[in-house]
Amino acid sequence: MPSHEVKNMSASKDIKEFKHARMELVDIAGHAVARFTLKKGWKWSDDIKPVVKTEWCMAPHLQYVISGKLGAKMKDGTEFEIGSGDVAYIPPGHDAWVVGNEPVVGIEFVGGRVAAEGPKKK
């Protein structure tokens, strides 16, 4: 492996677009890192569940939220919110949605490749 790698997220050619979401992925040092933008109205169970056909999101997520607010509910009923400046780990077995009118923009360090599976419209 090289001693270092530098890639610019804005130069990503691996872009996934959904009705209410956009993910830009970069593979670096054997890992996928994603910048995600979730628009007002995005909800995992409405937008992604029909594509992946699982009851809950089964991808783990390690992410940093740059702006906006994300709500989440675990299989056990626990609910929480992740907002601007928060770093969060969300284990498999959850639903998530945009809270309010502001899009959620963040960086996904774990789970980005799995979360981005679906139709590529670019």
Mean pLDDT: 90
| Span of the ends, CA to CA | 31 Å
Task: Tell me the total number of β-strands.
Answer: 9
Shape call: globular
CATH-assigned fold name? Jelly Rolls
Q: What is the number of independent domains? A: 1
Q: What is the annotated CATH architecture?
A: Sandwich
**Helix-strand makeup class:** mainly beta
The parts where pLDDT drops under 50 for at least 5 residues are 118-122
Secondary-structure element order, N to C:
EEEHHEEEEEEH
Q: What's the total helix number?
A: 3
How would the blueprint of this fold be written?
Blueprint: E1 14-17, E2 21-28, E3 31-38, H1 44-47, H2 49-52, E4 61-67, E5 69-74, E6 79-83, E7 87-90, E8 94-98, E9 104-110, H3 112-115
How would you characterize this protein structure?
The chain is mainly β and 122 residues long. The chain has one domain: Sandwich (Jelly Rolls), CATH 2.60.120. Helix content is 10%, strand content 44%. The strands form 2 sheets. It has a 6-stranded antiparallel sheet, with no helix packed on it. It has a 3-stranded antiparallel sheet with strand order 6-5-8, with no helix packed on it. The longest helix has 4 residues, at 44-47. The chain starts with 13 loop residues before the first strand and ends in a 7-residue tail after the last helix.
